[in-house]
Amino acid sequence: MADGTQKRSNRALWLGLLLVVLGVLSNGLYFLGVPAPPIPWISLLLPIVGLAFVVAGVWRAFARPAIYRGKVVGSLAAALCTLILAASVAGFVISRRLPAPSAGTPQVGQRVPDFTLPDSEGHPVSLSTLLSGSAGGAPPKAVLLVFYRGYW
Length: 152
What we know:
The protein is mainly α. It contains four helices and two strands; from the N terminus they run αααββα. It has a domain of about 90 residues. It has a two-stranded antiparallel sheet. The radius of gyration is 29 Å and the shape is rod-shaped.
């Protein structure tokens, strides 16, 4: 440069892009054993903060181009971060949506219809026999049903 000043690197752009990428990678926290409820919030918050840094870096690059670099790279990073943020918001909204209850689903307090299933030894057991209780004893107040989806 003629005046002896060099253009500085626009670190806000790179920090913002890093935060957005970390927001996407934070979805992998499920596999590390982190409790599930904060993960969608982290995956949403990091891209928002990252986009704010990228916008600040782009503003800095366009406001003072003699000092900071990154007009083209900053614009591309802002577009990429906006797309990633839109995907994060869509994922957040979809993950928070609960499925509609089925019409045939038993409700809390409703009596379960009688059924018969084999036990671990292959003998049929019905719900009515479990609720009737043993001979001479009081019938149970409730039955805990465990649906094990595996092999014995």
